[in-house]
Amino acid sequence: MQKGGKLEFHFPEQNRRRNMSRSNRKRKESRKMGNSYAGQLKTTRFEEVLHNSIEASLRSNNLVPRPVFSQLYLEAEQQLSSLEAGSRVDNEEEEEEEDEEEGSESSSPPIAYQMKPPPEGCCTTDGFCQAGKDLRLVSISNEQLEVPSGFLLVGVKSPNLPDHLLVCAVDKRFLPDDQGRNALLGFSGNCVGCSKKGFCYFTEFSNHINLKLTTQPKKQKHLKYYLVRNAQGTLTKGSAICWKGAEFRSRQSSSSARSNTLFQPPENTGSAVAVTSEPVLAAAHPGVQAGTHQMASDHLPSTVCYPVYNGKESPQQHSVKNNISSVTRPSVLGTLTNSGPPKKRHKGWSPESPSSNEAWHLQPNPQITNRNKNEGGGGGGLSCLPHGTMVGPVSSSVVTSGEPVSVPDNLLKIYKAKPVLFKGHGNFPYLCGNLNDVIVSPLLYTCYKNSQSLSRAYEQYGASTIQPISDEMQLLLTVYYLVQLASDQVPLIEDLEQIFMRSWRESHLSEIRQYQQAIPQAFPQVPGPIAPVTTAQLPWLAGLAASSCNDSVHIIECSYSLAEGLSEMFKMLIEGNLVKTNYVVIICACRNRAIDSCIAVTGKYQARILSESMLTPTEYQKEVSYELVTGKVDALGAFFSTLCPDGDVDVLLDKFCQENRGRISSSLPASVNKPSTLDVTGTAGCASYNFERHRIRPFQLAVAQKLLSHVCSIADSSTQNLDLGSFEKVDFLICVPPSEVTYQQTLFHLWHSGVLLELGLEKEHLTKQRVEQYVVKLDTEAQTKFKTFLQNSMQNPHTLFVLIHDHAHWDLVSAVHSLYPQSDPAAGLVDRLLNCREVKEAPNIVTLHVTSFPYALQTQHTRISPYNEIHWPSLYNNGADLYHENKKYYGLSEFVESTLSGHSLPLLRYDSSFEAMVMALGKRFPRLHSAVIRTFVLVQHYSAAMMAVCGLSQMKNYTTVETLEITQNLINSSRQCRSGHGLMVVLRIPCIPLAAVAYERLNHVREKLALEDHFEIILGNPNSGITIGKHFVEQLKIWQKIEDAEWSPQTYLELEGLPCILIFSGMDPQGESLPRSLRYCDLRLINSSCLVRTALEQELGLAAYFVSSETSPEKVVSNDVLESDPEKLSSTDNEDEETVTEGSTSEKRSPVQRERSGSHDSAASSLSSKTSSTAFCSETSPPSVTAGDTGKSTHQMLSSSTEESVNNSEKQRPKTDKDSKSNAKTTQTSITSSSASPFSSSSASSAPTHSSFVLQAPQCSMTKVSQQPPIVYLPKLVYDIVTSADSTGLPKSSSLLPYHSVMWASSFRPLMSKMMTCTEQSLYYRQWTVPKPIHMDYNNRNEGRMDTFHPRRLLLSGPPQIGKTGAYLQFLSILSRMLIRLTEVDVYDEEEINTGLKEESGQYYHQPGDAWPDFETMKKMPFDYTIHDPKYEDASLICSRVLIKNEDRSANRKQEDLYMRRQTTRMRLSKYAAYNTYHHCEQCHQYMGFNPRYQLYESTLHAFAFSYSMLGEEIQLHFIIPKSKEHHFVFSHPGRQLESMRLPLVTDKSQDYIKSPTFTPTTGRHEHGLFNLYHAMDGASHLHVLVVKEYEMAIYKKYWPNHIMLVLPSIFNSAGVGAAHFLIKELSYHNLELERNRQEELGIKPQDIWPFIVISDDSCVMWNAVEIDCSGERKSEYTWTERNVSLKQILQHIESTPNVTHYALIGMRKWSSKTKSGEIKEPFSCCHIHDFVMLNVDLTQNVQYNQNRFMCDDVDFNLRAHSAGLLICQFNRFSVMKKQIALGGQRSFHIKSKVSDNPVSIAPAQYICAPDSKHTFLAAPAQLLLEKYLQYHSHRFFPLSLKNYCHPVLSVDCYLNLGPQIAICYVSSRPHSLNVSCSEMVFSGLLLYLCDSFVVASFLKKFHFLKGATLCVICQDRNSLRQTVVRLELEDEWQFRLRDEFQTANAKEDKPLFFLTGRHI
Predict the structure, then answer these.
(1) Cα distance between the two ends of the chain
(2) What is the pTM (predicted TM-score) of this model?
(3) What letter does residue 813 receive in the DSSP assignment?
(4) 215 DSSP assignment
(5) What is the pLDDT of residues 1117-1127, one digit of tens each?
(6) Is the distance from CB of 554 to CB of 546 less than 8 angstroms?
(7) Phi-psi map region of 257: left, alpha, beta (phi>0 left; psi -120 to 50 alpha)
(8) Does residue 220 register a pLDDT over 90?
(9) What span, in angstroms and rounded, lies between the C-alpha atoms of 1548 and 485?
(10) SS3 per residue for 1476-1540
C-alpha cells in the first residue's frame, strides 16, 4: 500500500528464510534489481549497521537476528530511494518500518500495535502531556524552557495534530549528525511541559506526550525538526533532523496493509482512511492507500492522485475492467512468494515488485481532505504530491536497473533550476547523491500506458482487437510535440493524450469509423509514418525531428542503459551546455528490442512551473509563508534596493517626502481634499454617480420562472417527492462561503429585495439582526444556524423550506475524509450540513445549488438530476436582445472575443516586460517560489509608478507601461470629477501573507508620497471585513446620501466611485461582487500553474461586467485610440486618460502609428519595457541606464545583459513578420518622442512636473467606466491558454480538467465543442468525469440503479456577476405567491339572476332558524320556475305567468358581455375542500391509493347489465373496483360476479359514514377534477363513484387508482352529460331494486332501504353553512354568518331530515359573496337545483334525465320532476362553491368539419342545413348541433318571440335553451301533471321536440297563439316528421312550406335531427 508517496512492503523475514535458502534469495534479488553492483561490500558503516541489527533483534518477535553482513552486502539497494526521490526533503512523517516479524504474507493483516493504557485520571488530550501541560510549539514558543546541558529542543510530529509540533528535550547523542549518522541507539529525553526527566525509552516517552500511535513508536519517525529561537526570541521550527533514508522514505511512504495503521471509516465510504502527519512547509502529501480488505470494484476507478504536467492533472484512464487486470496480473519479474524485500532493507526496495504494483493502483489517501478545500488530490487540479514526488500508477514493468546515477552536488546552485525527470518506457536507473535537486515523476509513463489501453475501449462495441500505438511511436510523437512548443510554453498532458489518440485513430481509421465518429483535429499535424517505427530507427528519427528546433529539444542516445544518458545530461547541465535546451530526451534502444526512455525538463521556466504546479494550495501557502518568515526573500529586497541610481528606494522616498510635502498637496488638486465643493445633494454637477439598488432585470425574472417551473415539475411527477399543495408558506436559508464580504453582500441583496416582507417572514420594521437569521456563513459557527433551520423544518411541515447553497462549487470536500476537524474545521462542512440525512429525507426541504462553475457537481456520481438543472438563458439570439435589457454583459467569451483581430482594443492583456523580469529573477533566485518573485516585482512596479506620477521622473524606468498607466489613471481619475469619483483597481494576490506584504509596502509608499487622500488601498481578506479611512467613509456617505453616523462600507459594491486599489486576497474568490467603478483587474499574480477550468474561470469572473448598451464599448474605445499619443501605440492605450501635455499635443497621429501590434502584449517594445527589462534581467550586475542606451532597442539592451532573456522575451511574441515590423516602427516612435521629454504623455507613462498637467474637458471617470468593461491583465501562460482555441473555436481553457477534486473517467473521450450548449456540457461532464475520493459525491453510488439523484435538489448555473442572487430571491418571491395561489382557488362569485321576477309575497313558510323543512309546509310552497343560477344567464327565461312589463333582459348588458369570462373570486382553501390529483398530503395517501401497502392499479373490472325499455336493448356497464373498495359491493360466492352495490337503511343513525353514494360524471378532467373528497368528508367513510367514458377509462384509472369507476358504454363516448345522469339514475334504481330483494330475504322492508344518491359536479370545491342567530328582541330580527363546513356535516344533516324519503330532489344554493339576507330569510325553497343534487331514485322512477342532452339537462329534469308532482327542496342555509376549471367538461366538445382535419372554427349558423343539400357535414353529435344552433339562432325560427317576454314560446315536455332573448313556457303533456295556468297566455311560438304519444292534437288546441306565430317540430327522421304533422293535425292551424324543412349538418350515418317550421294561420 502507499501513503504519502512512500512504498513499504510487509513480507516477514522468517517466511522468506523458511521458504528458500539465503543464496537463492540473493540470486533472486540481484536478478530483480540488476546485478551491476550487487555484491559490493560497503565498509564505511559497519558499526552503525551492527547497532541497527542489535536494535532490530531486540524489537523483533523472531529469535533469529538479522545477519549484519546481509545488510552491508545488499546495502546498494538503498540507492533505490532515488527512484521516487524529489526536489527537497519534505520530512513527511515516515510510514512505520517493517520491524514486526508477523510471519504471514502481506495479504494477511498483522497484529495491531498495543499501546500501554494511560494511567487513570491522567490527561489524554492531544498536544498535552499526561500531566496536562501544553506541549504545542504555537503555545509555548515564547516561554523560557529549561534545557539541560547536552540536550536539544526537538519538534515531535503527532499523527493526531498534523498542523502542530510538540516540543521535547532530547539528548543530542541520540540524534544524528548532518550526514544522518552517528546517532546512538536508544533514547534519552525530558518533557518540557511538566519537567519530568529521564525517559529512556521512546515508547514510554510517546505514551507520556500522548502521541496515541497505532504503530511501533520510533524516534526516527516522530522526532522531525530541530527547534531554534529567532531574532525575537521566539521558538520556531528549524532544520529537519537528518535521519538516514528520510529523504526517500518521506517520499515513498505508503500506508501499510496492516490493520494497525488503519481505522475503518464511516459506513459506505468505500475506502479506509489512513492517519498520517504532514511536513514542515507543506501539507501532508497524499499518496495512495487501500482499505484493509481486498479491493472491490468500486475502489478501482479512482487510482492515485495524479501529479501534473504543466499544471494539469493526469486523468484516470483505465476502465474498471482494465484496473482489475492491471492490479491482479502477476509481475513478470517476481512471484508472490518472493515479492518482498529483506526486512530491514525496505528503504531501498525496488518498486517493480508486484506488491508495489498493487500499491500504485489503490485509492488516493483521503486524509488530505481536512487541509484546504482545494487539496482535492491536487491544488486546483494539480498534483496531490509534494514537488519532490511525482507518484503515479506504476506497474511492475517500470523497472529500475543499471548503475546508480549520482545527482551532482550543488546542481541547483550551478544550474539555477531543478530538472524534472519524467519516466518513460522500460527501466529507469537508480538515483543517488543530491536527490533534493531533482524531481522524478511517473506521469508520462502513466500517459503512455493509458494511451496504449485506448484500443480496449472499443471492445465494448464488439470491435476486433486493434493494435495499440507502439512505444516507439509514442516517444516519437512526444518528441514532435516538444519540438513545436515555444520557449514560453509548458507541455500539457491533455495535448499529448489527444495527439496519441488522433495518431492512433488515423492509423486505424477504417476499423474504428463504424464505432465512433472521428474527433475533430485540435492539434497540429504530426508526421504519420506509413510503416511502423522500429527500435533502430527511433533515435535517428527523434534526432531528425529535434534538429529543427534550435536545440530546444536535445536527444541523447544510450547504448546500454538510461543511466549513461542521465549521467551525461547531469554533466552537460553542470558544464552549461544545455542553456538553450528545454527538454532532453534520453533513449536507450539496444536491449531485447524494447526501448527505455526518459524525458528531462531542463528549461528553467518549464521546470519551475512544473515543480510549483505539484504543490497543493496549502503547501503553496506554507511554502510562501516559510520563505517570508525565514527571511529568504531578503535577498530579493536587497537586489531591488540596488537598482535605483540614487540609492535605496526608501531613502529616495524619505528625501522626496521631506522636500515636497507642502508642494504636493497644493499641486495635486484632488477634489477629495475639498469636500466643500460638493453641493447639498453631494453630486456637485456630477450626474454619473448612480448607486444601483435592488432591481429585477427581465432575464432574472425569466430564470426565476424557470426555477419555479422545475419545482412544479418535481411536484407534478408521479414520484410523490414534493407535495406543493400541502405547503402554506415559504421559508429559506442561504448558505454562502466564509467570506465576510460575500456574507454582507448577500444580506444587502436580501434586505433590499423585500423578499422577507413578501414572504410574510418578517414585519415592516426589519432589523439587520433579523435578516442575518436567513443567511449563514459556512464557517465553524454555521452549525448552530443550520440546526435551527432543521428544527424549524421539522416543526413546520406545512412550510416549504428552500435551502440555497450559493457559490456551490466552493467546498466540495467529503465529510467522510475530513479526519482532522481541529486543523481545518470548515473542510467538509458543506457535505456535513447539506447532505445530512435530515435534509435528504425532509419532504419539505428543497435544496438549490447556485454557482457559476457547476462542473464539479456534474460528475458520474452527482446527486442532481440532469432534469433539475437550470442554465442561465442566452441573453442574445442571432444578435437580437431577447430580454430588452439596457445593459450588455461582458463575460469570459466577450473578453476573449476582444482579443481577436478586428477589435480595436483587447480587454485581455499581458505584460511582456513584467514577464521577462520575473523570468530573469527566477533564474537569479531559483530557490524562491515564483509567486514571491512575481509579487515583489509587481509591488516594486506599483511603488515606482506612484513615485513617477508624483514627480520622481527617474522612477519611470523601474516600472512597466501597464503599471504606470494603471497608477496614473487611478490617481488622476478623482481629479477629473468635481465630486472626486474615481476608479477601482483590483490587484489579485491569492496568497494571504503576500497580500499583507504588498498592502504594507504600497501603504508605506502612498504615505511617503502624501497620496493618502487621493486614493485608498484596501486589503480584501476573505476572513475579515473592509477597513477604509474615515475620510473616504465620509465621502461615500455623501455620495450615497447615507445619514447613519455609524455606517461604513461592508461590501465592495458600496465602494462605488471610490478611487482605490483593492488587494484581493484568498486562494479563491468566494462570490464577492465588484462595483461598476472597476477599471483594471490586475491578475498578473494568480497562480498560473493552476490549470483547472473552474480556477481559471472564477479568476476571470472577477472582471465580469454589465456595460450600458446605449453606447458601444467598441466605439468608445476606438475614439480614445484616435486621441491617444504616439507612445500609446506600442503600449496599452489609455482610453481613460484625457490629459495630454505640450510635448504630445502637436504631434501628428499617423495611421501606421495607430496600428496595434498583433500581440496583445501591451508593452510590445516601449522605452519603459526596455529599461525595466534591463534593470531586472541581468544576473551579474545591476545595470546602469545611461542616456546612450535610449537609442538601443529593447532587444539590444536585453542581449547585452543576458541572451536567455532575449530568447524568452522574443518567443513571447507571436512569430509573424508583420508583428516584428510593427514592433520596429513603434519602437522607433517611442524612442523619438521620449528623447525630448521622456514619457511625456501623461496617459502613456509618466508624470512630468505637476505644472504641466492640462485638464481638457474634465469628465467623471464613472461615466466612461460604466460604458466600458474592465481591462484584465493576465500572466502570459494563462493568457495563452485562455485565448488559444481548437479547430472548433472552443477556448483551450474549456477543455481543461473541470475541477481539482474530479478526474477524467477515461482519456478515451471525445473533445468538447464550441457548439455545445450548457445542457450538452453538463451531459458531457456527467459521462466523462468521476469524483475523487475526497469529493463529497464520491460515495453517492448505487450499483446499477438510477436513484442516486436527490429528488428535491436543483442546480442553477449562470455566468459570474450576471445576477443569480437577484434571480433566486425573485424565485423565492414567486414560489411564495404560487404556494398561496395553490392554497387558494378561483370560485364563481356571481349574483343570482332574475331575482326581480320572483313573486314577492310577504308570506314566509319557515322560521329563519329552522334546521329542517316541514314536509306539509313544503307541499304548500309554490314552485319557482325561474332559473336563478348565474351560469344560465344566457339561457331562455321560463315564464310561469303573464309578465306585466316587457322587460328586455339583455338591455343592460352589452352583446360582447355574453361571452365574457364569468366573474370569480379567489378563496383560500379550507380544511374541508375537495382536491384534484396534485394534492398529496400524508393523510390522504391511503385514500388516493399511493400508500405503499396498496399496490397501484390493484383493482378488478366487473360487468353489470340491466335492461331498459326506452333504449330498446340491454345496457352493459363496467365497474372498476379497487381491492380496498370491494366491501361496498356484493359479489356472488361461486364466481365472484358483481351482484349489487350495498345500500344502508333509512333508520341507520351512525355518524361514521355517509349513507348516500356519490356519483360524479366527468370528462377531460382526469388531473383537474376535484375527486379527492377525503378532507371534504372529514375522513368519514363514503362511497364515491366516478362516471367516465370508455375511452378515458385508462387515464382516469392512472390518476385515481383507488377510486371506483363506472365506465359508460362505448355508444356514449360522444354523448353529453345527460347520458351520464340518465345512466347514473337508471343504474341506481336498478341497484335499489336488487338491494331491496337481497335485504328482503334478511327480513328488511323494501321501504327501509336508503333510496338517495348524490350527483355532484366535478368542480364542487367547498361547502358553506349559514348560521342564524335569532336571539333578537323581535321574532323577525336575526343575524347570520357563513363559514366553511365539511360535506360530511351537510350530507348527514340533510340525510337526517324528517320524512326525507318523501322528497324527490334536495339541493343547496350556489355560493355568492353578494348573497343578501333576504335570500336566506326563508331557509328552504322549492325551485330549480343544480350542480350538487341529492336524488331520490325511488320517487323519480318514472321521471328520466334526457340521455341525449348536452346542456340544461338539469333544468329540463327539474321541470319534469315538478310537473310530476314530486317535491323539490333547496336548503338555503347551505351553499356549494364551484371552482373555475378551464379544461374539460362541456369545453371538451369541439365541433369541426367531418371532411377535413382543418381546425377552422365553424359558426353556429352552419350547424343546420337543408336536407339533401351539399352542405359540409360536421363531426359532432346531432343533438349538440341542435342545442348550439337554438342557443344562438333560434330567432330565425321564432322571429315574433325575440325580446317578446309577454308572449313566450310554448315548449311541450322539454326545456331547450333558445337564447336569453326568447322566453319559454314549459308544459307537460302527461295526465295529472302540474302545469302553469296558460288560459290567459298568448304564445308567439310552439316547440315540439321529439314528442311522444302523450302529446295529442286535442292537447295542443288548448293553447292560444299570435297570428304569425311560428312552429318548430323536431324529429329523429323525415318520416317521423311527417307522421307527427299528420298525427297532431298541425296542418289545421299551421302553414308549412317545402323550403321550411331543415336538418342538423350531420351525415346520414350520424343520424341527423330534422326540423320542420311553419306559421300560425
Answers:
(1) 114
(2) 0.65
(3) B
(4) S
(5) 333 332 333 33
(6) yes
(7) alpha
(8) no
(9) 96
(10) CCCCCCHHHHHHHCCCCCCCCCCEEEEEEEEEECCCCEEEEEEEEEEHHHHHHEEECCCCCCEEE
